[in-house]
User: Fold these one by one.
Assistant:
Number 1:
Amino acid sequence: MSSEANRHARFNELAEAYGTDLYRYAMWICGNDALAKDLVQETYLRAWKALDKLKDPGAAKSWLITILRREYARTFERKVPKFTDVDQVEVPEDTEPEPDDRVEIQILRRSIQKLAPKYREPLLLQVVMGYSCKEIADELGITKSAVMTQLFRAREQLTQRLQRDGVTGNVHELF
Amino acid sequence: MSMNFSEFKRLLGAEPGNRDPEFLRARESSPEFAEAAAESDRLEAQLKRALDLPVPAGLIDEIKQTPQRREHPPLRYFALAASVLLAALAAIAVWRVDTGPVPIEEYVANHFNHDGSIVLQRGEGQVADNVQELLASFDLTMDAEAAGKVGYMMLCPTPEGVGVHFMVHTENGPVTVIVMPETAVSGGEHFAFNGMHAELIALDRGSAAIIAPQSGLLAGMDAFVQQSIVPAELGS
């Protein structure tokens, strides 16, 4: 395989491995479908240009998420957009057979949007991107202990909102 | 020493997927711990489903096409734009302390100074293929003939949220338009900055700024923008 073909193959692997999660992450931080797609495209464009600098394939995920977060900060350093599209995403009935589940998921989505960024972002990195607390700490430039506190607070707030909105179950007793 | 319940709940809330042997043992150490772990598992499953937003069809294929997309302007343009933005932000920060919110004219000038040249350059000789997609984000649409004159369009920050920034090919040269769906203006205001001429116009939804290097290029553009960009429900 030629070096150029090899480069394309490596790039395609990155697209398939992380494209979906990066889009979801982008949607949650910017709340707009078109902007999320644009952020992901821009992330991969930059990744393509700098692909030769990625020596360790195991570092690809954090490399991409760092590019995306920088791109987002660069685009919206003056103004954080309002959430729009996430709130309009319906939970499809075929994947959520229980109406109570659908309601709970919609409440969770609204609650996640309302989380302060310092709580929301570690949660996204952990649940959407599969980061460990150590990896989140490295990405955000804070201590692992601070990350754990923010993750605990994030779940605590989500649980409290579920309880306040009348979702049944015992989740409120967790925290 | 075994983990106490308080410490266990803290770990459940911070890292429920933790595979540490002590934590895993604690999950089954008593009915109280097991019940908390089961509730945590249920919350995590719902959280995962809530965060698992649908992904647009064809996204991965679009990403794979990235290397074929046209190259962006050289980095020096970004560096120049960034330095201009930093200077503008610093000026705005100082200015805001004394005078409150930035007027719309100030925003337009700073915005254009930041990336106006990049948008013009990206649109040169091009026809944008994302016009309706981006405008649909704001429940707006543009008639097909007008959309065919747009060379490049991108999302951009506006004083009240998000808008679109695009360049239009005209017979006399390119003209820049910034649509601000959530910003109201009375319309008709003309102003100049850094050798550019601009006009603010009211739209059915929000407003727009039209920017060109000569004031003559602005003539007729207000009607073009007002008539071609309309709420989606009014579009054909």
Note: Chain A has eight helices and no strands.
Number 2:
Amino acid sequence: MAGHVLAGYLTGDWGMMASLLTVAIFGLALAPRYWAERPGKAFWWYPAGYAALFVFLVLLSGEPLVFVLFAMLYVALYRYPIALAYLGIVIFATMVVTPYWFQTAVLCSAGLTLLLLVARRAKNSFLVGSLAVGLILLGAVLLPLFYMGLQSPLQTLLVTMKESLFSQALVNSLATATLSTLLVLLLGVPLGYALARSDFRGKETLDALIDLPILVPQSVAGIALLALMGPKAPLGAFMEGQFGFKIAASYAGIIACQVFVSSPFLIRSAMSAFEQMGPRLEYVSRTLGAPPSSTFFRVSLPLAANAIFAGSILTWARAMSEVGSVMIVAYHPMTVSVMAYDRFVQYGLLETQPVATLLLLSCLWVFIVLRWMRAHPPRFFVRRAEAVTAS
Amino acid sequence: MMRISGLRGTWGSFRLRGIDLELEDGEYFLIVGPSGSGKTLLLETIAGLHRAEAGRLWFGEEELTNLPPERRKIGFVYQERCLFPHLSVPENIGYGLRYTGMGRQQAEARVAEMVALFGLEELAKRGSIAGLSGGEMQKVALARALAVEPRMLFLDEPLGALDYTSRTQVADILKDVNRRFGITTVHVTHDYTEAMALADRIGVMHNGALEQVGTVEEVFWRPKNRFVAEFLGVDNVLEARSVPGKDGRVVEAAGLQIEVARAPQAECFYLCIRPEDVILALEPMEGANVFRGEITALAQQGFQARVTVAVGTLELVARVPLSSVREANLTVSSPVYVGLAPESLHGMEDGEEA
């Protein structure tokens, strides 16, 4: 009480003092009820929280009006700890990370909701704790994207979208990423199958080589491709002279880069799907009279289809997002990812944001559609998926 | 007739060490052995799923050694049944028919025939195999294997992972399939009790080799070596020697003079007594080989009791119905009489661990 009066006095504002008094009286009026519900030590959390709020908002932040608002909510919501937690998030977001308060509050609240859902299902505090720690990582990924996504007004996005340069780049990106994925699918599935089913000396080395593109820096990948197939390289000159095929500044170049960087995802998922399946279903198929190729198409491939599809999504996403090597091999024709970089270098951050946002949204859209298709496969796949989970 | 000679090979930690075996047409042959002895591997190698380092295979006059599995026509049913999870019951059964050169209508008729034979009409209406019980899956797997009319049927632990009722049911089906189709059946298991109900002949496998092959009678009552004896549940293997001047009809083991029906060739050997053949009584009984002893241990095993009786320095294990133990009120340290029928004793020359 004394503190309130003092604070009111310090601001020299009688209205403020009256508001603070009202809150204090409200808080005191509810105190006997809270005491009746939980007498003893547990009760003292109530005034402690109130005091903490006062110290934080009035003494440290110097925002008595905000204090009045939040203290009112605090006093009223004290018996609802979940509501209090959300209130705490809002207070933290508005007072500490003020410029990003909206994004922070939304993400933190979503995280808290998730934690509460998990906690309700599993009475396992270690599990909830692990999730809480993990959510920090997820938040660090989401916050910048979420923040940027909300920066550009819809108007700007629409204008950017109508720009012919942008739409051309988007078409380039979508087309090359899709073609790359198909190419990887065509070559990677047989590789994955062969590796999963064979055993030979040096298999481990070959296995490790699959992951090499993840390790190689993108710029190195681009330089290596140019060194081999560039206009001045013998192979490049030969291919261009004989077949008119060149990778420098061409769609073929973009696809070459995308295939290079994105192949591990599909090969890995195909391979592990075939490995997990084990050879016995194939053995049975063979003893029933099916030759190896027929066995592959009638048994192994349908059963691995789901995992291969998941791998294709990752491969597609990786191809779509590739920029480092594409920039070196084929700056033009421009893909959206290169375009975002180009804008940034030429015009700076603000001008780039709409392009970046649109690229993010289109990638997300396709990604979500594909993921949804995986969870709800078209009718043709439905029985397969059911059967696989049942077995 | 199937003839296998000198089949050998190594696959990781598994190996086959020169398997020679002849399988008669239409017989039910059971291969029994501990886990890791190479039983499944043997079946898979005969079916052509692994490349052997050496050995040849004939089916009648036709040599199978270099044929791929799809041309050997050997039906294979795994313990996990390995139904194709993405296909329905009729699709599973009809899987192999397109390779037989059968027309579409013929194939459909064959599937319907197999469905009727195994009583799968209700399951055949479902869209997928999800939710089938172990016994049902076993029937579908059998129907699938038999639909393509194989020369032989290989069964890998067909009664494993089934509950008691399904076990007896599936065992009946297996025997019935063997008789009705007259198909040579090879059944692999680690449980020797399956042999009694099903097998015409059995082979005991150990470390990638067949230790002994013979009829059930031969292998169970006249084991060739200590491994076979112990694996097939002969709990009493006694070191023995012939007593001179008795035509070899009396032997001595652990200080006891025991009369035997068949005189062993060697002077020193091992005496095998199946625990089921050890007779227990409260009063001294008629006949040869009756000794007085005392119970030192009693263990309940299912509806049987494993009773250990000390006769002098010798410990004999008997397996008797639980009800008899209860009726006679046997407990540890009860005095009992032990009877050993001379016909049930077998002198085994090779007492070493194989």
Note: Chain A has a mean pLDDT of 87.
Number 3:
Amino acid sequence: MQRRTPVFIVTSSRPRVGKTLIARALTEYFCAQSRPVAAFDVNPDEFKLIDHLPADTAAASINDTRGEMALFDQLVLEDEVPKVVDLGHQTFDHFFAVVREIDFASEVRRRAVAPMVLFVADPDERARQGYAMLKDRFPDLPLVSVFNENVPQIMRCRAEFPPTRLGGEPIGIPALTPVVRSVVDRRNFSFVAYVEKTNDTTSELYEWLRRVFISFRELEVRLLLGEITPQLRHSA
Amino acid sequence: MAKPAVILVGADKGGVGKTTVSRALLDYFIAHNIATRAFDTESPKGTLKRFHPEVTEVVDMHSTADQMKIFDTLSSNNAQLTVIDVRAGLLSTTLRALREIGFLDAAKKSQLAFTVFHILGPSIASLGEIDETAGFMDDAHYILVKNFINNTTFFEWDPATYNSYFNKIKDAHDITIPKLNEMACEQVEVASVPYASFVANKTGEGQPANYSFVLRGYVRHWLGNVWAEFDRVKLIDMVAPELQRKGAARQA
């Protein structure tokens, strides 16, 4: 049986909330399992994901129809290759306007493609509005809020980013100390290479990565459950 | 037997999107299972025929033989509805000819349903066209079309002036054709298929095609909006009221 192709859209309507770090970790989560993965960097001003993972990432621009085609025609492919989209805050509104106009949700429902939007929360009002917009306008897209503990005062605003019917409960990304973060942010740093080399499974970074990968595994299970739940209902 | 219906799509100016509207109409009626045929008066080679070859015939409206081919077969043809895409500049001439052959009288006696889609151009001259057309519209459904598909950024007429022309015609409606993404528009042209086939990712022969999902999405969205305009003016009720009644009876 053909498995549905997962498409993770990592985004926020606010800058500097850790989208690219999460997109990087998610891309490397698939690499760590020796699974092929295709990542897309949709940041208009600076390409960060592509700097870290040039072999697996394509720069994408949705400034014109050609760019939209280059991105969205890939996202609806039923090739079982997981897709990760790092969507910058500058393109958030336009991206979802296109999603709405071309009826992305209906197309992926017809195909074996399972999208999931990971919205990185922020205490700012614009983040709350962005999340509410996605929840209201795209009820067919699984939406999961992500609480990155590196974002100041993030846990105070949990109520503003409630669980959704298709996406489920929020996930958490543990904080990294500034020293470890500075290492991780180096252009040539790879999570997978680090795990392969290190002998210290008690290190801060190893523990961080373990927890983050468990969260990503949980997201995959949710997509799988979303796939089989209608079949279970049908057979009941 | 159902009363035959004729839709005339025309303008007195070229390049305002007559064939676009004719194509959207054919897709709409085919989707509603209304047997439809079309005549393309861009003789000798028609644009409409390129997109809907199975239901379209190219005719010369100046030829009596071709006029007979259209109007003498209205009742005998299997298709209940006839769509005529009138060549640019021939709308008034065609309406005059229809009066001369007694077609407008037949519409007056309710022997057939007659609807005119008048595609407006950007210039103030289009308002004059409404004035000229009004004289033929006593017993027809008259639909004025503002077509924005080719990025028209006009229609900035003074509303009072526009309404003074619009109100000259009893029961006139106006509809708006929104702009379609340029690349999507271009790709449908290249594919030479009906809009509905493009959306369904099918070739003209009904085989699976490989059109861009993004472009299909834009066309689907646009076509949905155009059809919503047809629904708004109750087009099915105008051309095939018995189908509307059947639908209502089914719902009851």
Note: DSSP finds twelve helices and seven strands in chain B.
